[in-house]
Amino acid sequence: MPEASDRARGNAETLVLALLRERPMYGYEIIRELAARSEGYFTMEEGHLYPILHRLERQGLARTEWRQVDGRRRRYYALTRDGLKALNAAASDWETFARWFSRMLAPQGGLHAEA
Q1: What digits encode the pLDDT tens for the residues 44-60?
Q2: Domain annotation covers residue 96
Q3: Gap between the Cα atoms of 96 and 58, Å rounded
Q4: CA distance 8 to 42
Q5: So what's the pLDDT on residue 7?
Q6: Per-residue pLDDT at 107
Q7: Is residue 65 part of a domain?
Q8: Is the dihedral of CA 45, 47, 90, 19 positive or negative?
Q9: Domain that holds residue 10
Q10: Residue 84 maps to which CATH number?
Q11: For residue 14, what pLDDT is reported?
Q12: Alpha carbons 44 and 28: distance in angstroms, whole number
């Protein structure tokens, strides 16, 4: 069976867009937020995150800006209008998938697998 990290890998862009929907964030903040909100279920390493962020930026789904915070210069990523549209479409697709997947897992009739 695939582990959570395997499942997340295919949906990593959607997870990142979902976080950026709330506010602009810098890379390490995205990694921390993802782990915190999922109580450690989803984790991501910088080597995986930054290619995703660069791809989202190239596709026009995210934009960047440099900010000076606590004497440090950080690159913040923010969702664009197209990014919000892409996130909404992905969320709708995911909800449809989850509904049908759950239906397939539900027992039908009188046949049940023995444990």
Answers
A1: 999 999 999 999 999 99
A2: yes
A3: 28
A4: 7
A5: 63
A6: 85
A7: yes
A8: positive
A9: 4-103
A10: 1.10.10.10
A11: 95
A12: 10
- Residue type present at position 26: Y
Q: What's the number of domains the chain is made of?
A: 1
Neighbours of 28 (CB within 10 A): 11
Give residue-wise pLDDT tens across range 20-77.
999 999 999 999 999 999 999 988 999 999 999 999 999 999 999 999 988 999 999 9
Place of tokens 């929907």: 21
- By the 10 Å C-beta count (0-12 exposed, 13-18 middle, 19+ buried), 57 is classed as middle
Q: What is the pTM of this model?
A: 0.82
Cβ of 31: how many Cβ atoms within 10 Å?
Answer: 20
The secondary structure element, H or E, covering residue 86 is helix 81-105
Does residue 115 lie within any of the structural domains?
no
Query: For residues 37 and 112, what is the distance between their CA atoms, to the nearest angstrom?
Result: 35
